[in-house]
Amino acid sequence: MAIVEYSDRQVVPVPKAKGTEYRATELKPPFVAETKPITIVQPEGPTFKIDGQQISWADWNFHVAFDVRAGLVISLASIFDLNNGKQRRVMYKGHMSELFVPYMDPTEEWYYRIFHIIEPADLLIVNPNKLTKVGNQVGYRLLPRAPASPLLSDDDYPQMRASFTKYQLSVTPYDRYEEWAGGLYADRSLEDDTLYMWTNRNRDIQNKNIVLWHTLGFHHNPCQEDYPVMPTLSGAFELRPFNFFETNAILKMKPSKDVTLPGCNSNTP
User: Fold this and answer.
1) 171-218 pLDDT, tens per residue?
2) What is the reported pLDDT for 14?
3) Strands ordered across the beta sheet of 123-131
4) Which PANTHER family is this protein grouped with (predicted)?
């Protein structure tokens, strides 16, 4: 018998709070070089208009609301299609369905779990009942930007409640009662009312009114720069039209007028 590897552990003392103040009013010198103020103005006012909860901007029109659980909810989003002379629906309703934040130790024992052999893919969704003038099916593409796979085992209760994280994409037929990916009560869910179970029903989605569920995230390995204020980590995705319009939708959009404003130089007060 031979010892091939030895992992030693020790208790690391928690750093003191001294020197970690982040409130501007409480900061003490020395400071880094001061930055100059910047001002961005629109001399003729903003392009967007707000009428109650209805927002219009250029060719876009959508409804904004706030939900106690989902937060920001954008619905009835449409864009004016000059070729058809009417508003075209882009999204019926969109919001964040669930937020899942598991915690793990950044130790050597976890290194093997961060390697995944996966292949990137774009998803194309089309409506076979609507065709462009040249015969293409109207649709759009989902372009993922921040994929992340779970590191928990399938029988772990947190993972059972957040089993939707096993897949980056799910598509289900519309059901008004299926809204929360982690269950109606995420902290008490037993996986029976989650997105994972809804997709396992294998319901037909061909030529149906569907709901597109996209999971995005990241694995955060903490470092000293995260304390006491963690820098922002961001994720994103893109919904891009694919034969949705007859031509490029911005061809008929007039450019903004040139406006002469004071330049940015050392002589500007």
Assistant:
1) 999 999 999 998 888 888 878 889 999 999 999 999 999 999 999 888
2) 75
3) 123-131, 137-144, 237-242
4) AMINE OXIDASE (PTHR10638:SF71), COPPER AMINE OXIDASE (PTHR10638)
What residue spans define the domains of the chain?
42-96, 100-113+120-255
Distance from C-alpha of 113 to C-alpha of 115, rounded to nearest angstrom = 6
Encoded amino acid at 199, one letter: T
Count Cβ atoms below 10 Å from residue 172 Cβ, excluding itself.
Answer: 17
Token pair in block for residue 182 = 């982690």
pLDDT at residue 40 in the model: 81
pLDDT digits (tens, 9 = 90+) for 110-149: 555 555 556 666 789 999 999 998 889 999 999 888 778 8
| pTM, two decimal places | 0.68
What is the share, in percent, of the chain residues with pLDDT greater than 70?
86
215 burial level (CB within 10 Å; 0-12, 13-18, 19+) = buried
Report CA-CA distances (Å) from 109 to 6, 7, 62, 150, 263.
Answer: 12, 10, 48, 16, 55
